[in-house]
Design a protein that fits this description.
Length: 457
């Protein structure tokens, strides 16, 4: 039974005198085994809670609530029961390439379809039983994000390292038949799933469009800590160009046939190839931005909209330092260029090399506090240091290496301003116009998912 870890102040649970350690046995007679049972049951406006108190007492509580009102409880585990762990041995797994002394959550490999439905995590489906597929279909748990990598059964068995990995097309066909929407991804490993294999995967996944809504192709990420693992290498600029040409040729076909681009090359390919990213209408409503697809286009279009809001001058002298990873550096420079004529404003851009993971890791989201401190300690001191929020833990101001924002601020002798990792965050942060911005965004992704912190980098 799900055990309550904490109760939010002012919540319905607090009003009902629920406490940490209490267990919710059922809602409206429905046993609560995991987060999905809970999420579906708690939407009713009239619910009956069967609660076992931490002292052993059994309560039956009738509750009248709004449709979208939650109880306001946090659980011991995100899924209420135990998270379904990954039992794959992917040849490109990022978790295998991180230092062993990092915090435990960064070494945890989840592969849980419930987290895919609730938070957008990418999953491989290798640990699903037929009952799980039927549950997804019955409850319309859509959309799901699925790591495919290849539709060649033998190749997928090898790349994912699981004997059931080759069943992926049958699983996707079943979900498509039951109208489950899916976003899929390929982590491209040179010499394995590129070239003709990439064409095959694109072609075979497109058969299930529009249920398979999008397919992203992202380059494999390798760190300096990769030892004793399958011999992989990074994508070269020439290969990046070929992947872009390949993907854009498919896009032309799909736009004619389906009215959707369907397949997308990650921004990193365009950076490596030194090519301009496609226009917004090629990104299928930006369904995979958290997987590094379309972020640059969003940034540039947002930057264009902000041009008219940039003042000729600010009232007081302001010296700002901005940090970024190496991959988006040229894009950030285009934003800073709009500020060069603002009187009283000076903006320094610091492109942080990733010494912690190694120079092959270039994305901003994997920048560490120690690298920022080491590379800025001899730089001229600014009035404020702007850090994009994607460098930090989703629920705390902590970097991947456990440096806190406070520590970075103290060691560099500069106050830190945490801003959204978009054009508005850059421009408004630099100008000091932060009053009407929302609180910093929180990301649900963890290191073992896709997106900025997963196998897509």
């Amino acid at each position: 039974m799900p055990k309550i870890q904490s109760v939010r102040p002012g919540s319905l649970a607090e009003e009902l005198e629920l406490e940490p350690g209490d267990e919710i046995k059922s809602i409206n007679g429905q046993p609560i085994k995991d987060i999905i049972d809970y999420q579906f049951a708690v939407t009713d406006e009239a619910i009956e809670l069967e609660v076992i108190k931490s002292n052993g007492e059994e309560w039956l509580v009738d509750v009248e609530k709004e449709y979208d009102e939650t109880l306001g409880v946090e659980w011991e585990h995100p899924t209420v029961d135990r998270i379904k762990l990954c039992h794959n041995k992917c040849v490109f797994c990022f978790v295998d390439q991180i230092p062993g002394n990092m915090r435990q959550t960064l070494n945890m490999r989840d592969d849980d379809y419930r987290l895919s439905f609730l938070h957008g995590n990418f999953v491989t489906l290798t640990n699903l039983k037929q009952a799980d597929l039927e549950r997804i279909a019955r409850l319309k748990m859509s959309p799901l994000n699925i790591s495919v990598h290849t539709t060649n059964p033998e190749l997928r068995n090898f790349m994912v390292g699981h004997k059931k990995a080759g069943e992926i097309l049958n699983q996707i066909a079943y979900l498509a038949e039951h109208e489950i929407e899916m976003n899929t991804q390929i982590v491209l490993c040179p010499g394995l799933n590129d070239g003709e294999e990439l064409d095959r995967t694109i072609r075979e996944l497109a058969v299930n469009w529009p249920a398979v809504r999008t397919l992203s192709v992202v380059p494999v990420g390798l760190t300096k800590h990769r030892k004793g693992l399958y011999d992989l290498r990074t994508v070269t600029p020439e290969e990046a160009n070929r992947v872009i040409d390949q993907v854009e040729a498919w896009q032309e076909t799909f736009l004619r046939q389906k009215g959707a681009a369907f397949v997308h090359a990650a921004d990193e390919f365009y950076v490596m190839a030194e090519r301009e990213v496609p226009p917004a209408d090629r990104y299928d409503e930006f369904a995979q931005t958290e997987n590094g697809v379309g972020l640059i286009r969003n940034f540039l279009d947002e930057l264009e909209d902000l041009k008219g809001q940039i003042p000729a001058a600010i009232d007081q002298k302001r010296h700002v330092a901005v940090v970024t990873g190496t991959s988006p550096a040229n894009t950030i420079r285009r934003g800073i260029a709009l500020l060069k004529d603002v009187a009283n404003l000076t903006v320094d851009l610091h492109v942080i090399r990733n010494e912690f993971y190694g120079p092959m890791v270039t994305v901003t989201g994997l920048t560490t506090g120690s690298d920022i401190v080491n590379q800025l300690k001899n730089a001229r001191r600014a009035d404020v240091l702007i850090i994009p929020d994607i460098m930090l833990k989703d629920d705390a101001d902590v970097f991947l290496d456990d440096y806190t924002v406070e520590r970075v601020s103290n060691e560099l002798g500069m106050p830190v301003l945490i801003m959204p990792a978009n054009a508005t965050g850059l421009i408004k942060g630099a100008l000091g116009m932060t009053e009407n911005l929302p609180p910093r965004r929180r990301y649900e992704s963890t290191l073992t998912n896709g997106g900025m912190f997963g196998c897509a980098v």
